[in-house]
Amino acid sequence: MRTFVEKAEMQRNSRLKRELQMLSTEPPPGVSCWQVDERVEELQARQYSAPLTDLTSSACILPAALQLVSSPFNALQLISSPFNALQLVSSPFTALQLASSPLTALQLASSPLTALQLVSSPLTALQLVSSPLTALQLASSPLTALQLASGPLTALQLASAPLTALQLASGPLTALQLASGPLTALQLASGPLTALQLASGPLTALQLAS
Q1: Which of 33, 39, 128 is nearest to 88 (CA)?
Q2: Percent of the chain scored above 70 by pLDDT?
């Protein structure tokens, strides 16, 4: 028979596993993603980790592979270190949100994250919708454009025709910059671009297919 101590330990483990699972699916209201992430790390460090719903599909979604940081100047900034790649943070304003429902126009392959959805609010120029795709458009043939609709966010434009370069305009949005350090996850697939793909291993940069 199990001793009282063993039973108490099993109950403790079960409680911590439930907390981990809850954090990975529905973070408590008012708790930031960073706090959730820290708590998960703390629990896992105690070796009470359970098979989790992948955090990349949680309501908090802080995958190490995807981060868009919103800075004080209403811009999206690409940074590298100390992150493996780009993470999505939607704290300061609600315009940047991750949704786990399928989004046929922009799909992330080879990752549990099924879709990246940007919801319009203050940043109306950057919109992802599953029908008209007015702001950020992905062509289904050889990539004709990842285009930002003319308006406040005109800075990031991808050349039309077979993709040749990430072009940063010197227009209103100069805050979207490629860091010189390694960006380990965001990769444009070779051939006709069918999706923005997240690779699990380091890629050393934002790579463009020739």
Answers
A1: 33
A2: 4
Average pLDDT over residues 98-114: 28
pLDDT tens column, 6-21: 777 677 767 766 776 6
**Boundary of a domain, candidates 54, 71, 88:** 54
Residues 83 and 110 both lie in one domain: yes
Residue 49 and residue 73 in one domain: no
Query: What is the pTM assigned to this prediction?
Result: 0.20
Query: How many domains does the structure of the chain reveal?
Result: 2
In terms of residue numbers, what domain contains 29?
Answer: 1-54
3-state secondary structure 85-137: CCEECCCCCCCECCCCCCCCCCEEECCCCCECCECCCCCCCCCCCCCCCCCCE
